[in-house]
Amino acid sequence: MSEEKDKLSPEEEEELQASSEQEEFDVEADEEEFDFEPDVDDIDEEEEEESEAPALPVLPKKPAGEESKWYSLRVISGKERKIKERIDLEVKRSGWDSFISQVLVPTEKVYKIRGGKKVISERNILPGYILVEALPSKLSGEIVQSITNIPNVIHFLGRNQPIPMRTAEANRLLGKVDESQDAGESLIEPFIVGETVKIIDGPFSEFVGDIQEVNEEKKKLKVIVKIFGRGTEVELNFMQVEKQA
Predict the structure, then answer these.
(1) How many of the other CB atoms lie within 10 Å of CB of 222?
(2) What angle do CA 62, 132, 126 make, to 5 degrees?
(3) Which domain, by its residues, includes 226?
């Protein structure tokens, strides 16, 4: 009798089954809401996005906007060229070329006349000095000490704390060097108006006269020579005369 009571009708069984399915669905929904595990692919994508973040910028070798300056280095006069070679070698060997850009001996081309021949040479504009172009922030400490320890080097202007040359002064010296290269040679001992010279070439060779005019640009002179007791103007180039001892 009790079994008949416990036995459910088909309608009741369907309701019971539908209720059970609804409970299972609610449990699964709760698990998805509260026990969500992120997909591995999503994690990888996030890690890739983080790894693709822009790298930190590489610090420059010199401060932004820093410009090279010229410094004067006192050296033994007559040894400028040899010292320049030694400094250039040290710059290359030590890897200083990133902040020491130039080592310069300021010179100009000159010539003198010997026996009617033009002898060309170079003359130092600043005897006893070498110019060094470098970044101010780098030219200090051990670098300065290493340069001043080179034989025949005395010291920088400012000694252990080199003082850069004024821009106007540096430009004047560098301009003079460039000018010398473009203009060609200049006479070591320039001719002077009123000076007595001896003619060594041309139809008036062996005559002696006084300079009346000097044209440096054309390298010409106007000389007054005495012919039969009368003063005669003769135009000559620099190579046709020599100074009287």
Answers:
(1) 15
(2) 160
(3) 196-243
Helix extents (H) in 61-166: 80-94, 141-148
**Residue 62 falls inside a structural domain:** no
pLDDT in tens, the chain (245 residues): 444 445 556 666 666 565 555 555 454 544 444 444 545 454 455 444 444 444 433 333 555 567 899 999 999 999 999 999 999 999 999 999 999 999 999 887 776 767 667 777 778 888 999 999 999 999 988 999 999 999 999 999 998 999 999 888 888 887 766 555 545 555 567 788 989 998 888 888 889 999 999 988 888 899 999 888 888 899 998 888 888 76
Kindly report the number of other CB atoms within 10 A of residue 19's CB atom: 9
Question: Hunting for tokens 């539908």 — which residue is that?
Answer: 18
Residue whose structure tokens are 């203009």: 183
Give the single-character DSSP code of 162.
Answer: P
Residue 168 shares a structural domain with residue 231: no
pTM beyond cutoff 0.90? no
